[in-house]
Amino acid sequence: MKITIANLYYDLLNLYGDSGNIKALVKNLENQNIKVNVLNLSINDELDFEKYDFVYIGSGTENNQKLALSHLMKYKDEITKYIENNKFLFVTGNSIELFGKQIIDNDKINCLNIFNYESIKQEKRIVKECTLKCDFIKTYIIGFENHDCIIDSNKYNPMFKDKNNIKEGIHYKNFYATYLLGPILIRNTDLLKYIITKLIIEKDKNFKFKKFDFSLEEKAYNNYIKCMSKE
Amino acid sequence: MKLFLAIFISKITIIIGKLLHKGSSTPGAIALKIDKNLMSKFTLPKTIIAVTGSSGKGSTSKMIADAIKKSGKSVVHNEKGSNLEYGIATLLIENATLTGKIKKDILVFEIDERYTKIVFKNIKPNFVVITNITRDQPPRQGHFDLVYREIKKALTNDMHLILNGDDPYLQKFNLEKNFKITYYGIDKNKYSYTKNKFSNLNINYCPRCSSKLNYNFYNFEYLGNYYCSNCDFKTPKIDFLATKLNYDKNELIINDKYTINNCSDILYSAYNTLAAYTTLSLIGIDENKICKYLSSNKKTTYGFYEFNNRKCFILNNKNENSASFNQSLLFLDEKKDKKTIIIGWKEISRRYNFDDLSWLYDIEFELLKKHDIDKIICVGPNRYDIATRIKYADIDNKKIKIIQTLDEATDYIKKNTNGNIYAILNFDYVIPFTSLMNGRDK
Q1: What is the CATH number that goes with domain A2-230?
Q2: What is this structure's pTM?
Q3: For residue B31, is it within any domain?
Q4: Are B361 and A183 inside 8 Å of each other by CB?
Q5: Quick one: closest CA in B to A23, which residue?
Q6: N or C terminus: fewer CB in 10 A for chain B?
């Protein structure tokens, strides 16, 4: 089996260690003896969504986000089709804003409008640690946020919920988008396992899985949970 | 009267503070409470030099201040590193008469990037050195573009900027406002490289037209000799160019003519030395003398000693600042020996309680792959996070050793490892590690 991952805007949207998610996918797919082909693509490249099994977009500065957006806008129809066809799209940090209707900061900037929400710039940057629940994962999801807009995506199925059941992110078919930044697939191996398993099964229902080895990652995770519960 | 009272009371506080060995921002805070316009009331020296940037501001400003002293002029400098508004206020009060007059020739101060716009309003520098704007403390700073914007707000056209011309990002200052700028930089040398070594760079595209930047060579991360693939944006004409850099001979030669003899083999230290050199030259000190003054400084960038015939390099890093770790990795990447590496820290941050370690993935630990590594020891409260990062840099699991405390880790290094020792530590582990390796108590 061969899996092609498009690492979109790898040289613009790589602000908070987001490239760790690509490392997580590659290493653990390869451990399943799957051939992985990573395409690092950016604003000077032609995109061809027919060729990708998995698309990743990470977080960036507001400037770089706009640069990437103006390139991505050319592919609105292809991306919509890609999502509707159940293909995998994984989005971390402020790139979730690209998929709404508009980003409203000093200007109003049109986005892909695949989902009908606005991203509205806040006076103060949102910087916080998060421990969240997820419908399809038994364990808590841990992460960090650092962005300047908030989105009102309440009408959509969220990716996560906090302890007060406030929704976070969007989960639609195999579109996964969250404001959580950085290597969340390394920090949350249950989520990584879920996504990798689903990605493989879509290609081959009878795939014989090898056991995942997440011993280091799990110790880091447990340590974090332990520290959080002390506070 | 207010001014007199503010200075008088704070001066007493400074004396009490010194007796109690307390920090140096409280007196300034008290003075500003008494007189909120205090900062505008000082009679300042004619020459004022400010040094800001994500890293290197402390050592650069110290080099500048020390050399000025050696040249026979008197100088006021916040050498203890209190670089926020209150710290600068304390510094000025300490050196002022009761009527607010600073009777020194030159004021040199390092200043936190985000406080430039507050302090420069009243303490207006003639020269501003901006060493760099790197990834640094994301929870506090957001990101580098926001830091850039904050510094830009503080600058006015009558300030003379001193910038690293090898850094395309810093040229943004010049694209938006026309400043008087003097550039320093490092020419192609035996440590330069042509294929990019670092994946997560702050700038890959032209700050003028957003086309891809190309490089004739790199010195570090995105520092090097660059040109835009579309417009005429490129490395500017460098006024103070290191035409030769030789770590083995401790040699840094400027414009083919002036030699500084205490260059350490950390590239950032060479850049800081160049920034200091450029500033000193601009305030009129003879270049031969600058070389003499800078050459007489002690090398302080990293600890080095021999341990049972093994070299031990202690590299001082700043957590949440991937550039500082990348700098250490570049240092290590130039050495072809067998290595034992230890990575760790006590606290992620002194300033706040966020436990985010995403920045570990901005560091190019992948550079370690091609080296002959005996062990990588991950130590401290975040040892598993560090070990996980190392695992994803494709380092063989068997080489990764996870140890809880520095005591056990140093013990392990002494008894069970081979090769030269590279300690890549946050500054809070540097002193305890050094003591333990030397067998002394912490």
Answers
A1: 3.40.50.880
A2: 0.95
A3: no
A4: yes
A5: B392
A6: N
